[in-house]
Specification:
This protein has 120 residues and is mostly beta strands. It has a single domain (6-118), classed as Rieske Iron-sulfur Protein, CATH 2.102.10. It is 0% helix and 40% strand. It has a four-stranded antiparallel β-sheet with strand order 2-3-4-8, with no helix packed on it. Strands 1-10-9 form a three-stranded antiparallel β-sheet, with no helix packed on it. The chain has a three-stranded antiparallel β-sheet with strand order 5-6-7, with no helix packed on it. The model has no long low-confidence stretch (mean pLDDT 93). Bound molecules: FE2/S2 (inorganic) cluster.
Length: 120
């Protein structure tokens, strides 16, 4: 299996500058588009700003006791780690890997393109 390759984008210079709400979700920009960063047990997860079901604003949802993000509109639940729709409606929440390097926060976007087909 080919290993995934990512291009990493800095979304914050410092973890401490992220504006987490009471719901432990912050909004940052990834290449000019809003995405969410969710914090659960000191780990950070990046996922889409809008819900794949009907466009609910995920940043207005919450993270439950199991570390799943819950959409505020119809309360569908998603794993922040793999995007799985854990409440079973069959949707998929786009998500990205997060790395902390020094103090800065980076989000990885999977590289796509011809050469990746061959693992180049
Ligand atoms: S819009 Fe998110 S669950 Fe319906």
């Amino acid at each position: 299996m080919t290993e995934k390759k990512y291009t990493w984008h800095k979304v914050a210079d410092y973890v401490s500058e992220l504006a987490f709400g009471d719901n432990q979700i912050a909004v940052v920009e990834l290449k000019g588009k809003k995405i969410c960063l969710g914090r659960y047990r000191e780990a950070l997860f990046a996922f889409a700003y809008k819900c794949p079901h009907a466009g609910g604003i995920m940043a207005d949802g919450y993270i439950d006791a199991l570390g799943q993000v819950v959409c505020p509109l119809h309360r569908y639940k998603f794993s922040m780690a793999n995007g799985r729709n854990t409440s079973g409606e069959g949707y998929y929440l786009k998500h990205w890997p997060v790395e902390i390097r020094g103090d800065a926060v980076y989000v990885g976007q999977e590289e796509s393109g011809f050469w990746n087909l061959f693992g180049a």
